[in-house]
Design a protein that fits this description.
Blueprint: E1 3-9, H1 17-35, E2 41-43, E3 54-59, H2 61-69, E4 80-82, E5 86-87, E6 93-100, H3 106-115, H4 121-127, E7 140-144, E8 151-158, E9 180-183
Antiparallel strand pairs: 1-3, 1-4, 1-5, 2-3, 6-8, 6-9, 7-8
Length: 184
């Protein structure tokens, strides 16, 4: 990963930044699927409690050029500002940016137990209380599944800084559980 592109969501009186970032990320996800996943990673350099207004895409120069040759930003150009393709500065650190999922949504576990015939509805409510649920405390993108049509939250966790890069593949979301992106 020797290059990057910054895409900044611009302030808009009609749409909150989070809505625009959700739309930007959804379009990026579709473009990563089309361009072939694995080569490009993402980060949110301004993230805190929320992801912020800056999305950074990391990769090799050719892979980033290929992504930007696709018309994926169509419809968002008035709401975003895109940097040119830039080299990663020397002396940066690295970090893994990954998806974080709660494995125990009480509602999901109840639905599954009922659908599989393991428990009756009243029994599922009794045996799987909401207090068993684990909550993820990380900023997120809200997306709509192309296959199921359901809206879901993609929680994004930026791990601790590292001195050395780690290789690996990135998902169609630009995330990885082992590969690092340059952090600067």
């Amino acid at each position: 990963m020797d290059h990057y592109i910054d895409i900044r969501v611009l302030p808009d009186p009609e749409f909150p930044n989070s809505v625009l970032m959700n739309a930007l990320f959804a379009k990026l996800h579709r473009a990563l699927v089309e361009a072939g996943e694995g080569e490009l990673g993402i980060s949110f350099p301004k993230a805190g409690k929320y992801l912020g207004e800056l999305l950074r895409i990391h990769g090799k120069e050719a892979a980033l050029a290929r992504l930007m040759s696709l018309p994926w930003l169509k419809g968002l150009r008035d709401y975003t500002e895109t940097s040119p393709l830039l080299p990663v500065p020397d002396g940066c650190q690295y970090r893994v940016v990954q998806r974080r999922q709660a494995k125990s949504s009480a509602e999901r576990l109840r639905r599954r137990s009922i659908a599989k015939g393991w428990l009756a509805e009243t029994e599922a409510i009794e045996r799987i209380p909401d207090s068993n649920e684990q909550r993820v405390k990380a900023p997120f993108i809200q997306l709509k599944s192309a296959t199921s049509g359901q809206t879901f939250r993609l929680f994004i966790y930026q791990n601790k800084l590292q001195k050395e890069p780690q290789s690996g593949a990135f998902s169609a979301y630009g995330l990885s559980s082992q590969a690092t992106i340059p952090w600067f």
